[in-house]
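Write out this protein's structure.
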Amino acid sequence: MGIRAGGVLATMDLRAVEENHIKPSFFFGAYSEINLTEKLIIRPEALYSSKGTRFSNHEIYGDGSINYDYLSVPVLLGYEANERLTLLAGPEVNFLAWYYSRYRGETHTLGNPNRKVDWGFNWGLAYNITPKFGIDVRYAHGFQNYFHFVYFGKDERVHSLRTQGANKVLQVGLTYTFFRKEMK
């Protein structure tokens, strides 16, 4: 059992936004490890994770960002290659906590999202520096999703944009383990 936190490089494939860019962000939460065999573990996690994308040169809102904050629940299967290195892979479900957009110096609430749950798949590795401290690197790819944005245009009228897209996230984090079997 332990905690993990770190940085995120997130983007989304949005079909209606031509110039997507990486959005730096963060995550934090807790995890547990359940031994299945000497080499296999199940690692459920509960994380607060900020995802989304930055955009530029959009014809209506110029430069800005689209932000989706989730309660993420990955359930990963781990293979302990040795006492320090674990390979991880598995599904995650993301429950939408908050969503907004920033452009033209203002924060705007996005319209009622059609999807409040996003599914994805994770893979990566965890390396134990000491029995208590570790580092992990992970890539999470959301499955194709449908997004509905409501925003104010330059004409100060409300506009609506429906598009498809998927979250793409690279996480680099630090872990602190409270309870773990001892490394040899």
